[in-house]
Specification:
The complex is a heterodimer.
Chain A (H helix, E strand, L loop, with lengths): L2 E10 L10 E8 L4 E5 L6 H9 L4 E12 L2 E4 L5 H6 L2 E4 L6 E5 H15 L7 H14 L10 E2 L5 H15 L3 E5 L7 H14 L5 E5 L13 E6 L2 E6 L1 H10 L2 H8 L1
Helix pairs in contact in A: 5-6
Chain B lengths: L20 E3 L6 H10 L4 H15 L23 E3 L13 H9 L13 E7 L2 E5 L2 H6 L3 E4 H7 L1 H7 L10 H9 L4 E5 L8 E7 L10 E6 L4 E9 L6 E4 L2 E6 L4 E8 L11 E12 L5 E8 L4 E4 L2 E4 L5 E10 L4 E10 L5 E11 L3 E10 L7 E11 L4 E10 L5 E10 L2 H8 L5 H17 L4 H15 L5
Parallel strand pairs in B: 3-7, 6-8, 7-9, 8-11, 9-12, 10-13, 11-13, 12-14, 13-15, 13-16, 14-17, 15-18, 16-18, 17-19, 18-20, 19-21, 20-22, 21-23
Antiparallel strand pairs in B: 1-2, 3-4, 5-6
Helix pairs in contact in B: 1-2, 2-7, 5-6, 8-9, 9-10
The chains are: A alpha/beta, B alpha/beta.
Chain lengths: 260, 476
């Protein structure tokens, strides 16, 4: 087991009493080597699930557990800060990557890489060595080296921002990648590049969770499991064929099935 | 870690050097001024000008137009001169009190010949006097004069008489008048025609004694076609009482000369409750006298309980250029009212203002700037950008830009922005393994990047470290 989400309930941190929970009892187990797709209509809680696992402070877990494998032991990570979760190999690829003006992409990537290395007792890397380390990764994502000297996501196109997320994933080499709508805003060429990047980072020790609206991404990254989220609950799980069925029939039949 | 955590209160330069000193009695009057002038063996004209300034000062009032809450200062309850006891004249460093050498070594400024920093000549000012100037002889070989202002008054009276007080007249403002009356030391630099100063020049100010005001005076003269990079640093012990620092820096740049003046100001800022700290009331101004001359002020203001400071340029020569790059960080109870004045007098003069204010905790951070285009300044251009960043929700930032244009061919641009560190930015960086402090320092350093770029490398490294230290545990 890599991660086990048990009966997870969550709401907005500043929500008032009686406000609706966004996640209402999620159960999900992911093993190393697996690819899971989380689908569902708008507002079903897909992005929230990814953010809660990564520790976003806007959400409060009202009950349930998130157990994550740390050094071979399942540990509840709800008390860990986002940076501590990141150091343990949890990676969130943002739907809307954030701009940090004035900070070069290179120094950001290096600070991030070195922070994670340091926590794992690995030597930090000097700038020149780090540039070398980045070269094949940039090539994989068909990114020009000039990317490194630009401000973090500042003035990037939608496609560049998404590629930059996958570059960060390649740099940090996480055990659990949560990719939130990574396909949105990508044209087909960029989508293929991003998918190639994600596929090449896959191995038997790590797992990927794809949060997506569309089946399109799944043509390029094949999921082992597909889960449908509706009103904060997983209402159906299946294999890749479920995604194809959704593409064809939409969500309504599932929602009716769940309500009956 | 919660975003409400408070700032750490550690100031590593806050130690005190226990040393035997000689001081004048408290208070200020014409006798004290005469005593000071005599002590320094000054010519009569200088004493006369001091007395004139003092009489003028007595008629003046503390300025109150800045957005600052300045407690009443009893100017008769201060020492105006305090100096380490020493032999009559110091011929070499061997005669400097080892305690003083140790003090500066601790501050990161070794002075002995074996240890002095290469590439930078330093004049060190301890309370009221200059202790020593490194690399003096090497500089003399290329004709650069770099010494304390007291030595300059004695050894280069013509230069001093020609330039002292020409950029900042004693009547300029309350603190300038006070300084003109009682300045006790400072630095003098003279770069002769066509010389690019072979190393950076630097003054390091240290206030040590209790209840003592520091009034030093710096004069930099860059002759035709010369170039110099000037650096200034300042620290003081941690004390519960406030201390006054009222300095004047004057720069004169002649035809095609360029002077870059950079300051990293880290005076003791008082404790978290606002007790103690330096009042930094400083007048800095440069005259771009010659054609094509350039003066730039870069400042990183990270200390002092109260900062009142507007490094300015009078752009007199045609095509001359002035620049002001500033990062002002305030935290705890600190107050800063800082900015610049760019006065365009000559044709096609150009000025650039980039100001970055960062406020944290309950501090107050103001930018105040004046861009004045005089009737003769055809084709003058100014670009101003003032950005404020708020860390937390208890601090405040204000921008007071004044623009006076008396020539229609001038172009004046002004941009201003106020930002807060957003939760999204913090979460984004945190989710990449960076802890809260690192996230903030990264965002703040990014915000200041345009200014840090203009600092000499060693200084920019120091500035980044200083901001990191100041923002430690402070989170928005």
């Amino acid at each position: 087991m890599l991660i086990e989400v048990k009966n997870l309930h969550a709401k907005l941190s500043d929500s008032e009493e009686g406000d609706k929970e966004i996640l209402r009892g999620i159960n999900l187990t992911i093993k190393p080597g697996e690819v899971h797709a989380i689908m569902g209509p708008n507002g079903s809680g897909k992005s929230t699930l990814a953010k809660v696992i990564a520790g976003h402070p806007s959400f409060e877990v009202s009950s349930g557990e998130i157990n994550y494998n740390i050094n071979g032991k399942a540990q509840d990570i709800l008390e860990l800060d986002p940076d501590e979760r990141s150091k343990q190999g949890i990676f969130l690829g943002f739907q809307y990557p954030v701009e940090i003006p004035g900070v070069s992409n290179l120094s950001f990537l290096r600070e991030s890489f070195n922070a994670v290395c340091k926590s794992q007792g690995i030597d930090e890397m000097e700038e020149d060595a780090f540039r070398e380390y980045l070269k094949p990764k940039l090539k994989l994502l068909e990114m020009d080296e000039s990317f490194l000297d630009r401000g973090v996501n500042t003035g990037f196109s939608g496609g560049e921002k998404k590629k930059n997320e996958i570059l960060q994933m390649a740099v940090l080499n996480p055990r659990l990648s949560l990719l939130d709508e990574t396909d949105s805003g990508l044209d087909i060429d960029a989508l293929k590049v991003v998918a190639k990047g994600v596929n090449s980072l896959k191995n038997k020790y790590n797992a990927t969770v794809l949060v997506t609206h569309y089946q399109r991404l799944l043509d390029y990254i094949t999921p082992d499991f597909v889960h449908v989220l509706y009103k904060g609950q997983i209402i159906k799980s299946g294999d890749k064929s479920l995604a194809l069925e959704l593409e064809e029939k939409g969500y309504d039949w599932l929602i009716e099935e769940a309500n009956s | 870690m919660s975003t409400e955590d408070v700032l750490k209160d550690d100031y590593k330069y806050g130690f005190y050097t226990d040393i035997e000193t000689e001081e004048f009695p408290k208070g200020l009057n014409e006798e004290v001024i005469a005593l000071l002038s005599k002590k320094k063996e000054e010519p009569q004209w200088l004493l006369d000008s001091r007395i004139k300034a003092f009489r003028h000062w007595q008629k003046m009032k503390m300025p109150n137009w800045a957005k600052l809450k300045i407690p009443e200062i009893d100017f008769q309850d201060l020492y105006y001169y305090s100096a380490p006891k020493k032999k009559e004249s110091l011929s070499s460093l061997d005669e400097v009190d080892p305690e003083l050498l140790a003090t500066f070594e601790k501050l990161g400024i070794p002075l002995t010949e074996q240890k002095r920093i290469t590439g930078v000549a330093v004049d060190v000012v301890f309370d009221s006097v200059s202790i020593t100037t490194t690399w003096k002889e090497d500089l003399e070989k290329v004709g650069v004069i770099f010494c304390s202002i007291s030595e300059a008054i004695r050894d280069y009276p013509d230069l001093i008489k020609k330039y002292l007080g020409t950029v900042v007249p004693y009547s300029d403002n309350f603190y300038a008048a006070l300084n003109a009356a009682v300045f006790s030391d400072g630095s003098f630099a003279y770069i002769p025609k066509g010389v690019t100063c072979p190393m950076d020049l630097s003054t390091y100010f240290r206030i040590n004694a209790k209840e003592t005001g520091q009034f030093e005076r710096t004069l930099i003269v860059a002759e035709e076609g010369s170039y110099v990079n000037y650096l200034e640093g300042c620290t003081a012990p941690q004390r519960d009482e406030n201390q006054l620092h009222a300095a004047i820096v004057e720069i004169v740049a002649l035809d095609d000369a360029e002077v870059k003046y950079s300051t990293v100001q880290n005076w003791y800022a008082g404790n978290k409750e606002g007790k103690g700290g330096i009042y930094n009331f400083v007048t800095k101004r440069g005259n771009c006298l010659g054609r094509n001359s350039k003066i730039s002020w870069t400042q990183v203001e990270a200390g002092s309980a109260i900062t009142w400071k507007y490094p300015s340029c009078n752009l007199i020569g045609d095509n001359s250029q002035g620049a002001f790059y500033s990062v002002a960080l305030t935290n705890n109870m600190m107050q800063a009212d800082t900015g610049t004045k760019m006065v365009h007098i000559g044709k096609n003069t150009k000025s650039t203002i980039i100001s970055k204010g960062i406020s944290a905790e309950t501090s107050q951070n103001n930018y105040r700037g004046l861009v004045k285009i005089m009737p003769g300044a055809h084709g003058a251009r100014n670009y101003s950008q003032c950005d404020s960043m708020l860390v937390g929700d208890k601090c405040s930032a204000s921008t007071f830009p004044y623009i006076e244009v008396k020539n229609n061919s001038a172009t004046v641009e002004h941009e201003a922005s106020t930002t807060k560190i957003s939760e999204d930015q913090l979460f984004y960086l945190q989710s990449r393994g960076l802890d809260m402090e690192k996230c903030i320092s990264l965002i703040v350093n990014g915000f200041c990047n345009e200014v840090f770029k203009t600092l000499p490398l060693e200084f920019s490294v120091e500035a980044v470290k200083l901001l990191e230290m100041k923002l430690e545990n402070s989170v928005g």
